[in-house]
Structures are given as C-alpha cells and as structure tokens.
Amino acid sequence: MRGLKKYLSGLFQGVRSLLQGMSVTGYHFFHPREIVTQQYPENRATLEIFERSKGELTMPHNELNEHKCTACGICQMVCPNGTITVLSKTEQNEDGKSKKVLDRYIYRLDQCTFCALCVKNCPSDAITFAPTFENAVYTRALLTKQLNKEGSKLQKKS
Amino acid sequence: MIYDFSKLTSSLDQLLLSVLPPFWVLLVEALLVLIAGLAAFAVLGMILVYMERKVCAFFQVRLGPNRVGKWGTLQLIADMLKLLTKELVTPRGVDVLLYNVAPFIIIMAAFLSFGALPFARGLHAIDFNIGVFYLMAVSSLAVLGILLGGWASNNKYTVIGAMRSGAQVVSYELSVGLTYITMVAFAGTMQLSGIVEAQADGWFLFKGHLPALIAFVVFLIASTAEANRGPFDLAEAESELIAGYHTEYSGLRFAFFYLAEYLNMFIGAAIAATLFLGGWMPLHIGSWEAFNAVMDFIPPIVWFFGKTFLLVWVTMWFKWTFPRLRIDQLLTLEWKYLMPVSFFNLLLMTVIILLGWHF
Amino acid sequence: MMPTDFKDNEALEQLRESGTNVVLTTVSDLVSWGRANSLWPLMFATSCCGIEIMAAGAARTDFSRFGIEVYRSSPRQADLMVVAGTIVHKMAPVLKRLYDQMADPKYVVAMGNCAISGGPFRDSYHVVNGIEDIIPVDVYIPGCPVRPEALLYGIMQLQRKIKVSYSLPLGKKEEDK
Amino acid sequence: MTDQALLDKVLAFAPGKVAVEEYVNTYPALRVEADALHDLARFLKENEETDFDYLMCLSGVDWGANLGVVYHLRSTRHGHVLVLKTQTPERITPTIDTISDLWVGAEFHEREVYDMFGIRFTNHPDMRRIFMSDKWMGFPLRKDYQASNPLHLETEGAYEDEGIRKLASGKGKDETFIINFGPQHPSTHGVLRLVITLEGENVDQVQPHCGYIHRGIEKMCEHLTYQQIVHLTDRMDYLSAHINNEAVCLCVEKALQVEVPLRAQYIRTIMDELTRVASHLLFWTSFGMDLGATTCFFYSMRERDHILDIFEETCGARLVLSYVCPGGVMYDLHPNFQRRVKDFIREMRRRLPEYHRLLSGNVIFQGRSRNIGVLSHENAVSFGVTGPSGRASGWHCDVRKQDPYHVYSQVDFQEAIRTEGDVFARYMLRMDELETSLNIIEQLIDQIPSGDYAAKMKPVIRVPEGEYYQRVETARGDLGVWLVSQGDKFPYRLKFRSPGFSTLAALPHLCHGFKIADLIAISGSLDFVIPDIDR
After folding, report:
1. Residue D282 with chain C: CB contacts under 8 Å
2. What is the tens place of the pLDDT at every residue in C37-54?
3. Which of B227, C69, D258, D306 could bond C64 through an S-S bridge, CB–CB 3.0 to 4.6 Å?
4. pLDDT digits over C91-110, tens only?
5. What is the 3-state secondary structure (H, E, C) of chain C?
6. Most A CBs within 10 Å: which of B53, B71, B321, B335, as the mutation test of the A interface?
7. What domains can you pick out in chain D, each with its CATH number?
C-alpha cells in the first residue's frame, strides 16, 4: 500500500514539476514583449556600441590631416605579439635639424588581441580604439592596415 | 451541412469512367492521389519545419527566421533548394544498398500513414474498415528505416542511435496500441471515418470521461516518443550522439530523415485529433442547435488542421521545455507508468462502456 | 544594408567577372540564393570565440533570423564551417578531416584572430598561424573575440559572396582561385 | 602548527636528505633529495600532525643544469602549506618517483611534467604524453627546446595512439565498443577528447585526451613582460577571464609588495563576482543544453548579456576583459556602472526562481542528475577537485575564505556547501553561488571608495628574485600561479595550476558504470573550460 502511495505521489509530483516548467516557457510564448532580439543589421542606424568598446586601433587625425604620433615606437615595444610596426623616416625640419617622423604606422587587425597596452602606454595619446566591428573581408591582406593617412603630418603642440 | 468530398471524387470517377476503361481509371486515380499526396506532403513538411522554427523562437524570447521573405516565409524554400543541390556523400565502408534504401523506407512509412488520414468528410486516399489497425501497422515501419540507416552507416554513433530508437519505438508501440484499442472499444469501429462520424454530437475526449482523457495524454506522450521527438529524441540526441542515426547522411537523403521526423509528428497529432478531438468534425455540443450550426460554417478541413496544429504546438511546447530523458528513464516511463496506466485505462473504459456511463 | 556599406567589394567584382554562363544564369542565381540563405553551420569552436558564437545564437543577436540556427554537429549535413578559436598542431588534422567530410558546397569562415593568424598565440610552438594553411577560407572576421554582430556581418559578407558565385553544375563548388 | 615547527618536524624525519630552502618564498619550502621524496611525501600525508591531504600544485621547472619538480602541499584540516622541491641529478634521462599512489590527482600533473620536461616518473601507472601527440619531438618547456615540429595534416589511425592501444588491449570481450567523444563534439565544451569503452549503453572506462587546444601559454610567458602576460591569461579560462588576470597581477603585486588602492580592490572584487555570475549563468546554459533542454540557453544568455554590457561599458570588451593590470585596473569605472549593476541584480533576482521552475525542479532533470557521478569528499581532496565541484562534495575549499584577497575578508558571505557530491549537488551549488555572488556585489556596490584606480608602477616591472605562489578562486575553482623570478623583466617560469586540469583527472573515476547520457551530464556538471585545462 505504501508502495502504491509512493508511486502515485511520485507520479503526481512529477507531472506537477513538468507543468511548472511548461508554465515558464508558456509565459514567454504568450508575452511577445519579453522578446529581446535586436535586429542587426536593420537597426544599424540606431545600434549603439559602447564608446570604450575595442573594435580596432585607429589613429585620429584632425581636420588638417595631422596626427599626434611621434614614432617613438613604445606601442610597438609593449605589444605582446607584434601587431604594430612603426616605420619612421628622418626629415629635415625648417631649422635644418633632422628629426625622426612617422612614415608608416602598420597595424595588423588580424593579430591584435585588444589588450590596450599600446593605447595606455602611448605618451602622446596618438592612438585610440574605435568601436567599429564591421571588419569582415574576403582577402586577408586587407586586414593589415596603415593607420596614418597619406600625407599626414605631426600635429604641432599647442 | 458539411460538404462531402466523396461527391467530388465520385463525380471525377464518373468523368474518368466515361472516357477510359476501368483499369486505366484506377491507374489514373492512383496517380492523381499520389501526386496530390506528395504535394501535400512536401508543403506540410515545409509548413511544419517553418512552424517549429518560429514557435521555438517565441518560446525562447527571440524572433526566428525573418530575413528571407516576409517573416522568413521563404526560408524553407531556400533550405529546400540548398538541400536539393547538396552533394550526396557516400562514406567509405557503408552497406550501399541499405544505406540508400533507409531514407526511403522512413519517408514511405510516413507517407503510408498519411494516406489513411481523413482530412475531411470523404477526403482520404483509402477508407479502410480496419483503418486504426492499418495505422498501427504502418507507423511502426519507420523504425526499420532508422535501424537500417543506423546500421548501414558503418559508424558507432549511428548504431547506438539506431539501437536506442529500436528499443524506444518497440516499447512505445505498446502504449500507442493500447490507447488505440481503448478508443476503438469506445467507438465500436476501426474505420477512421466511422470514428469521426461517431463524434458528431461531442468529441470522444469529452464523451469518454476519464479514460478518454487518460488515453489522450498517454497517446500524446507515446506518439511523441514514437516520432523520436524531444524530449524523447534519444535516437538523435545531439549533445550525445552528434546526429544519432542519420549522422552520416547528407543532402537529400538527410532531408528525407528530417522531413519524416516532422511528418511523423504531424501524423501523431492528426491521429490524436481524429481519435479524441473529432477529426474534421466541428465542435458540437449536445442540443445547442444554433451553436452547432454556427460551428458547421467553418469548413471541416480547417477544423482538422486547426486541431492537428494545436496538438503539434503542444508537442513543441514539450520539446522546448523539457530536458531529454535517459534511455533507462525512457523505458521506465513506458513499462512502469504508461503501460500499466493504459491497461488499467482499457479496463476502466470497458467497464464504463458496459455500464453505459458515457454520454 | 546597401552594398556600399560593406567592405572588400573589389573581391566580389573579381568573382563576378570570372565566368558566367548566360543561359543557366537564372537557375544558378536561384540556387545560389537558396544556398546563401540556408547556411547550416558546423561550429568548430575551440575557445573564446566559441562563446561568442553561442552569444550570437542567443536571443539578443538571434542569428536564426538569417536561417542559420540549424546547428548541425555532423559535418555531412553542414554547409558552413565556422572556425572559431585557436587551431593547434594536434587539432589541425581534425580540422582538415572535418572539412573533407563536409558535403559540397561548403564554406569556411575564419572567426577571430586566432583562426586567421594565430592571434595572441602566434609565437607559440604548438599553434597554427592561420587556418588558411590547412583549408580554404571564404571570409575572415577579425576580432578577439569577435562580437556577435561582427559574426552576423561576416555571415552577410559570405552570403554576398555565395550569391555572386556561380553555382552550376550542381553539387560542385567553384574552385578557389 | 607554526611554519617553524612544521619545518623542524620534517627535518627530523629525514636528516641529511632535506634542507630548508633559503630563498624568497611565499610558503615554507624544503629541498629534498630525489630518492627520499616518496618516503617523505608519504610521511607528510599520513602523519596526523602534518596531514597534507591536498596536493595544490605540481610543477616542473628547468633549472639549467638539472630539472626540478616542485610540490605545493596543503592540509585541509590544519590549513598549513609546505613546498617540497626536488631535482633530478641530470637532464638526459631524468627520473623521479611518482607520488600518484598518495595523491590520485598527481597522475595527470606528473604526465604534464613528463610531457613538458621529459621527467619520467617511476611506478607511474600511465606514463605517456598528455598534451602533445606521441610523435612530438622534444620537451617544450625546457629552456633549450629547439626542436622543429612541422605541421602534420594526416589523421592518425585508430590505434596508433598509445592510450587507445592500451584501452583496446585491456579488453577481451567482443561486446566492448571503443568510441571517441570529441575532439569536436557538441557537448565536450570545446575540444576535449574522451575515448570511452562502452558495454551497450554503459560506460566502462573513460580516457581523457587533452592538448587539442594546448597553446603553450606557460612557455610564451617566459618571453613576455608582466603586463603582457595578463592578456594571455584571459584566454585560458575565458569564462572567468577577469579572475585569471587578477591571479597574475596579485602574484606580481605580492612579489613587489605593492599596495593596491582600495578603490581598485573594490572594483576588482565586484568584477570578480560579476564574472562568476556570468560564468555560472553560462554553466546553466550549457548544462541545460547537454541534457537536451535547449530553452535554458536562451533564458540565461539573456541575463548574461546584461553583465557583458556592464563589462563592455567599463572595460571595452565583452569576454576577455584585460581590465586588470599590475597595481590596479586599467581605467576607472564607467559612470553608469553602479546603476547598471543594481539593475542587473534586481533583474537576476526576478529570474532565478524561473530557472528553478524550468529546470531544477523538473522530474526528468532530477532523475538524470540525482545520484549520478558521486564524488566523495575524500576523492575530491585527493584529486584536487576544487571550486563548486569540490564544494558540492562537502569540501570547504573556497579560496575567498581560506586566503582572502582584495576585500573578501570584509564581506559577509557564506561559503556554499553541499554534501551529496552528485551531479545535482554540483548543479545546485552553482545556483547557490549565484545568489552568494549577488549578495556580495550588493554589499560592495555602494561602498566603492573614491581615490586612485591604480598604484603607480614602473613601466618595466622587475620582480625580485624568488618564488611566489598566489591562489584565487575562479568560477571553476582554485587557480594557482607559481611564479619563479630571477630578477629579470620576464618571469623565469610561470606555472598555472588550473582548476579544470585537476577536475578532469576525476572524470574517469566518476563515470564508470553510468550511461552515455550520464557521461555527458557528469562532464557538464564539472563545468570544464578546455583552454583552461590545456593552457
């Protein structure tokens, strides 16, 4: 008799737990407001990515096409896996002194680990992370980028 | 009054008889039925897959396919095109004959059951006088395909999946059979059209008291298990056996397995609707003439599909809520719970019939 | 999204110019459309990016909207292999084998910097520097790890590529390069 | 017992063979002759007063002239720690006695040492490579490792692997199936490979094969500065990335004796707990999926996304944060941080009962998890199964209580404990911890003091010569960092005692006699992160 009672109570409890579970999913089914889907790419115009988000390394240029990079090479040094290569050249400035300036700032997006050591260690705040993420391409070579724009110059200290 | 499709079919029959000899008429009719059946099969399959993807999305607080066509309606067309043009891989070491035959057995088993379903009055391929018995026989054929496919694939996962499925289907066949018998005893006929007609003044679920309700629940569970649907999808348990018995199938062959799974689900729901919810019969309540007349305005085919899809939705609700059973739990459920309950239920039903307690 | 919103359109132009058969174009386009919109993925997720794939499949950035929620864990049934995470020497043969087991047409997405180039571990003794040494890659999605939206963007890039590639004769994928 | 009394006791046991290590050390250390090691270890384990029942860490190290093995022992009863150091006489055919007969968990660790340094452990039951394939040339963590191993793309034949050959030969019965789970399998949580022998549906033996994501982090660390190392640790156990970061930073700070500003400590603690919540949510997700309850995935990922948003807003990354740096944190909190965290806690509290209704109470779920894969308290200690899995076996192993770091000593929280040790207990324990973590965050979130978020550090950190050990509690258990510095800007040796590795060693022991489906449930309940195991 006790066995039967146990059997029946087990059956009842089991069914009850199943119905409880179904009530959870059922609730969500009948409450479309619970849907949390954000429709990328339809929401592309309104999609906000947090400003600190690390999408790719960029070198901001002002409207005169000037950047702040002094080609000191610290970022290249602190980078753990050789993502950054700073190529510099020597140039004569107005005073006739030869000076090291940035020639090409090579950034390999396909290697970067986004540890932010370069940005944090940059003495002149020349580089920063941009929250872009639409970077998928068919050709791997396109992921190696030159960050300084053509013909850009070092920004004068104000 | 409810439209009788047999008028249409018999007039078509007359028309054909007037131009062709009887043998050819039979042949042409068989061909027509085949084409209609296949078309319905394919369309239904696509609707079901689409429905599952949408329904599960809504259970899961997301949207589901919505980028291909409006609300993702063309998603299944794309899937079909892709599956049709996908390479058919025949792995090394398979038993080529059985490997190729298995998907067809499965899809054929589903198709055979499909033929006996009464979609509306007079709208079925064959109205056997032993319709229920036929369904029982045919629906257990699918396991052959699964076993063969799993065995022929020369892969350990598929063998385990197939063996699981074998144990599962053979066990659950019992409960399904017992619930069939319960309802046949109640209806007094095995003919599906007769069963539906007998529900003109109330569905069996309501007329049959407790035993009908119990039989209904048991049937829903057991038919889900027979169709290898979650939470009974041990045969293809993705987290354990990759894709179970159809791991090695690709392209169209895989599509057959995929389609058959959904159609079996549909067939299970359709049989449940026929046996318990009055099939295509509109909702009639005893002597409420006006109400009954209003209900009759809704065409029977809508009733049939409405009920079936409702039950399909319920099985989806199970599937997307519960974790999968383990093989011993699965067999315990059958042998320790469902089967004794069904036996007891059959007894109860007989008593009720003998005492005339039903409505 | 307009085509101009996408990157690397030049590669597509090259692909489009390479051989088209006028008669069969419509059929081919239809099939390509089907293939592009029905990418059933095989998740070759080895590390962090695998979690972001999960996140991409979750409700927030539900990638079933693209019709790619039908995860197939069997390579035979998958169309798209998403290689997410570091591939090491011991894993490379497995990757190759799974790729070979997939049925044509098959596509590969290298997700994350580990899969593209070895990423943070490229100096290690046991890490493969980019899966393109092992299998052909269709789309590279940089990031470490790739955020879910970026994966969706990558998938759209792949869809664009499939749509312009020529899909006949049936069952054969165009040779890369 | 004080450290001195402990040392005296050991010195008295084996005079002449043992010497106290006069080196900068975080724990009392002894140098032992290789031939006296096993006896001493047995003494330390079986003696009532010492009772070193927990082998925290077993590491190999290349000292140049010879190779060394270092054992970190801990007593769960007395709470004291002792470091044993031993050396092989030479480096051509180095051998040392195994201690895997005393601590079962040592079996895997010794295999790792063999794989990385080539030290053979005599009497070891299964001495073969663990991460690298059998054909790999050389031992990577040796300082003179030069071997070039080209990439092989041919898959090995079924029985070419030594371990599988062993499995196959051990069985005479025809019914046994040898089956491969992984390395690419939907429920091995990455790339673990389990070779199992089956009898019907029943699992007989399980043999884990690791190394499919062995990335050689420990070797790479030897060529990176301390700031650079941090970003690699993210990618070990990427689900508790933040806590991993901390482990290294705490170790370096301890070595340098840097005082971390209080604000940074608060931030780190809160982030820790958020990470833990995120990780346990992901556990819920994947465990549900392993058992076939797919919908769980979507519900807990929805909540997890809130945490990831909080992370991204402050740290700029969702998963691998790289937010900690030696001395503090990289940048200050985002102004929205506190509001968001509070919102999240409210949301989470609302959702948790839903989780229990959906999964925990479910009769199928209970049937699949109760009394499955029972890990006894004794075995948990012997294998070194820490974290939630260990606590589910009744072992008080929470590092946050034992060796409190940051502000954990000031927080009022109970260590969650369950004693059943089965899959269900492990599952429920994580659910308990979710609530504990929410409580901790709630206590701290309004108390964050103002001030600096990082101490001033030199651009190039040189850790003073010595050996340092630091433990933290990740979402998976006791993560130990053993740092050997020779005063350089790079570490001489950096060893991660990852919680998953020890846990994995217990898996074969748990699965015997259960069904395939249980194997999935058990491995799911241990909550592996494979890169954490392989490193």
Report:
1. 51, 54
2. 888 888 888 888 888 888
3. C69
4. 888 888 888 888 878 889 98
5. CCHHHCCCHHHHHHHHHCCCCCCCHHHHHHHHHHHHHCCCEEEEECCHHHHHHHHHHCCCCCHHHHCCCCCCCCHHHCCEEEEECCCECCCHHHHHHHHHHCCCCCEEEEEHHHHHHCHHHCCCCCECCCHHHCCCCCEEECCCCCCHHHHHHHHHHHHHHHHHCCCCCCCCCCCCC
6. B321
7. 3-122 (3.30.460.80), 217-497 (1.10.645.10)
